[in-house]
Amino acid sequence: xxxxxxxxxxxxxxxxxxxxxxxxxxxxxxxxxxxxxxxxxxxxxxxxxxxxxxxxxxxxxxxxxxxxxxxxxxxxxxxxxxxxxxxxxxxxxxxxxxxxxxxxxxxxxxxxxxxxxxxxxxxxxxxxxxxxxxxxxxxxxxxxxxxxxxxxxxxxxxxxxxxxxxxxxxxxxxxxxxxxxxxxxxxxxxxxxxxxxxxxxxxxxxxxxxxxxxxxxxxxxxxxxxxxxxxxxxxxxxxxxxxxxxxxxxxxxxxxxxxxxxxxxxxxxxxxxxxxxxxxxxxxxxxxxxxxxxxxxxxxxxxxxxxxxxxxxxxxxxxxxxxxxxxxxxxxxxxxxxxxxxxxxxxxxxxxxxxxxxxxxxxxxxxxxxxxxxxxxxxxxxxxxxxxxxxxxxxxxxxxxxxxxxxxxxxx
Length: 412
Description:
Layout: H1 12-33, H2 37-43, H3 49-81, H4 83-101, H5 107-120, H6 123-134, H7 140-168, H8 171-192, H9 198-201, H10 210-217, H11 221-236, H12 242-248, H13 256-285, H14 287-306, H15 311-325, H16 328-338, H17 345-374, H18 377-393, H19 395-411
């Protein structure tokens, strides 16, 4: 369908293309330095192995603490003053904080800059809110699925870019390059995105507490947010132990980083391809049914990794998991957007992004606790069980469970 098919949203396809490019560039930048942060921490002081691990965990988690609070607030600012403005602000906020990390002289400074990154960036939340508000309701699922492919594509390109820069130049130059990439994203959005002003001027700006009151009065929103938290938590649970699990299953120690990187990159590449396909499928069969399918597949593939006999089997299962999990966030966000009134869409989507951040924060902590108390294979079992809880939250699952006794009695 052309822009003319949706006269109330005259620039949505053009905006989506620009946002896709900007998100790909920004995500490549963000993921370029994350795998190497623990190594950077070791460079910033004479730390023991235990101290380096403690600071690495704290610095990795720092942005999530501030972003959980800041992201919904930036969503309210977007609804009140303009969504494009907040996307540009997020790009430059991310770029400046990451650029300054190149000049950190101790771990305390790096920790403060990571806290500032979480408070000032929120780029993915900003682009998601913009696209959800500036896209025809019939095409929001397609648009968010396409954005998810940019996120996955950036997470594939970023570590490769960061590794080359760190090896050829120096690790500090990675932060400089990432800051430049984020600035490119910001200038791209500022110069080329065309915001539809009526979305901002046709209604009065909501008060700061309205989006939170809206959560309690809208049927299904709390269930969607709970599904986002638990689903994201389940998907990132194996992160802290994944390289060690591959090593336990026979991955050569001398190539452990390479094997881990290849596993992550393959899963990201598959996710980039599969995310738009899930939303197209949901347009045909319904979002609840599509979410049921991808969540069930992800749950089974998570548990299967606990039973894998060799690290190559895990790599294949991770790729398949990427194909199924690719649909979860776009479908959840689409359902959330469909329940949000237009003038508060960025605010509600910001709360959804905070739910994702909360899952990202809790998942690795839970995974480490399960691995320490029960063993690494049980992390994948716990991940699958959490996804099973997400399945139960799905109204389609409850419908099937109600009909199951009738179906079985009919067979008898």
